[in-house]
């Protein structure tokens, strides 16, 4: 007599001769719930319907789905799909009961495939860009010939002035230039000194062209040590004078404010440099009074002569009235 695989008690000889467990002993190895009438056996282990499909069921290949497929399974493109998710990649019509064509790992209905073939035939008659390998849709306005190859002119800027190019651009000394600078033989006008710039030595930046020696900080006229520079109203500046112009110079050390920047008294301050100029205590997140254009803590301010405090108070009141009047 065969015993139950779960409780090891004898099985009912009058029952199902193929049974290996008591009905009441049968439970899912995953959720440990009773199997019920529908269950599956995988390598000697029993699984309920939900866990079987969760572990071994087919999943929908649709990008936003990926769920287990219960019910009808659609096979296509070497994958499985929910019936409602197997659709044309172009128009979205369902393809479960319709003919389709596979293109680039996607399914297309017959109508969309015909349209795509027609467009592809038109594109094949157009010149191809050697830079992006795509057809040039409007050769009359988009195409130029550069180094004996057809390209989209929009891939390039004028070597002299940096402007965007179109089909009217010209090749000059192995470089593309706009019609204006093609007529001038590749010469431009320096944005700083207004003298002629030749193609051999120039710098194109900020919507203009410069002699290399003219591309310097507008304030201190120092050349930029690296390729980095800062722009204010179309002119180049070094880091120090950019920050000075934009109000980022520390009111104590006169250097570029670093780390956490404190804004007070109409200036910027390094966090470590915003302190009382009498007792040198930090004023970050503390009350202070401006005295002689310097911050002073309330405690030090209170020990100043009364006449000084009255003068400071009058100045503060005058400043408030001026700001209120918008002067």
Can you describe what's shown?
The protein is flat, with a radius of gyration of 40 Å. The chain has 327 residues and is α+β, with helices and mostly antiparallel strands. It has helices spanning 49-56, 110-124, 139-142, 179-183, 239-245, 298-302, 306-325, and strands at residues 39-42, 45-48, 74-76, 79-81, 100-103, 106-109, 143-146, 149-152, 170-172, 175-177, 188-189, 196-197, 203-205, 208-210, 230-232, 235-237, 261-264, 267-270, 288-291, 294-297. Helices cover 20% and strands 21% of the residues. A two-stranded antiparallel sheet has the order 1-2.
How many strand elements? 20
Oligomer: single chain
| Topology pattern, helix = H, strand = E | EEHEEEEHHEEEEHEEEEEEHEEEEHH
- Widest sheet, order of strands: 1-2
Uncertain runs are none
What percent strand?
15-25%
What is the helix content? 10-25%
Mean pLDDT: 79
Largest β-sheet summary: 2 strands, antiparallel
Number of helices: 7
Structural class: alpha+beta
Q: What is the distance, rounded to the nearest whole angstrom, between the alpha carbons of the first and last residues?
A: 107 Å
The shape is: flat
Radius of gyration: 40 Å
List the helices and strands and how they pair.
Layout: E1 39-42, E2 45-48, H1 49-56, E3 74-76, E4 79-81, E5 100-103, E6 106-109, H2 110-124, H3 139-142, E7 143-146, E8 149-152, E9 170-172, E10 175-177, H4 179-183, E11 188-189, E12 196-197, E13 203-205, E14 208-210, E15 230-232, E16 235-237, H5 239-245, E17 261-264, E18 267-270, E19 288-291, E20 294-297, H6 298-302, H7 306-325
Antiparallel strand pairs: 1-2, 3-4, 5-6, 7-8, 9-10, 11-12, 13-14, 15-16, 17-18, 19-20
């Amino acid at each position: 007599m065969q015993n139950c695989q779960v409780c090891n008690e004898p099985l009912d000889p009058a029952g199902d001769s193929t049974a290996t467990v008591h009905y009441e002993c049968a439970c899912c190895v995953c959720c440990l719930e009773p199997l019920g009438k529908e269950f599956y056996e995988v390598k000697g282990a029993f699984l309920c319907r939900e866990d079987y499909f969760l572990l071994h069921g087919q999943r929908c290949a649709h990008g936003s789905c990926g769920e287990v497929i219960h019910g009808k399974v659609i096979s296509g493109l070497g994958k499985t799909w929910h019936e409602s998710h197997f659709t044309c990649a172009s128009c979205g019509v369902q393809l479960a009961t319709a003919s389709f064509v596979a293109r680039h790992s996607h399914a297309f209905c017959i109508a969309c495939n015909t349209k795509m073939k027609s467009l592809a035939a038109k594109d094949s008659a157009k010149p191809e860009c050697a830079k992006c390998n795509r057809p040039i849709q409007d050769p009359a306005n988009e195409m130029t010939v550069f180094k004996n190859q057809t390209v989209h002119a929009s891939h390039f800027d004028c070597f002299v002035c940096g402007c965007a190019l179109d089909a009217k651009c010209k090749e000059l000394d192995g470089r593309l230039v706009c019609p204006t600078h093609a007529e001038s033989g590749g010469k431009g006008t320096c944005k700083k000194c207004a003298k002629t710039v030749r193609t051999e030595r120039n710098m194109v930046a900020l919507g203009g062209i410069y002699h290399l020696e003219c591309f310097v900080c507008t304030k201190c006229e120092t050349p930029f040590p690296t390729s980095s520079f800062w722009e204010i109203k179309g002119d180049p500046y070094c880091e120090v004078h950019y920050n000075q112009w934009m109000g980022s110079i520390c009111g104590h050390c006169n250097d570029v404010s670093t780390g956490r920047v404190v804004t007070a008294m109409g200036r910027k301050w390094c966090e470590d440099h915003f302190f009382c100029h009498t007792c040198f205590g930090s004023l970050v997140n503390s009350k202070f009074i401006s005295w002689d254009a310097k911050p002073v803590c309330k405690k030090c301010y209170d020990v100043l002569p009364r006449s000084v405090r009255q003068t400071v108070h009058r100045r503060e009141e005058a400043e408030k009235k001026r700001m209120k009047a918008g002067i």
